[in-house]
Request: fold
Amino acid sequence: GMTFEGNASDTDLGAGNTMSGMYDAGWFANPGGGDYHLSPSGATTFADVATWKEGDPPVDYDGDARPGVDGAKDYAGADVPQ
Reply:
């Protein structure tokens, strides 16, 4: 079987994961226009869902810094809201 850890999902994946609920377009700035930066609602939903681990990217897709400390809480996904 598979082991899931540090995920946000609409399904209960067990301990170490977060149920975020069903997809909500309001989590993003303008998904219809291709802008998937987190909105304030998305920032609240996905804050501290992920755990940064050694070897993870040091920045998000905009070049904004990730925690850079093994085991530190982080945003799930590619965007760290500013």
User: Anything to note?
Assistant: The two ends are 38 Å apart (CA to CA). The CA atoms of residues 10 and 23 lie 8 Å apart. The beta strands are 8-9, 18-19, 28-30, 35-38, 50-51, 73-74. The mean pLDDT is 90.
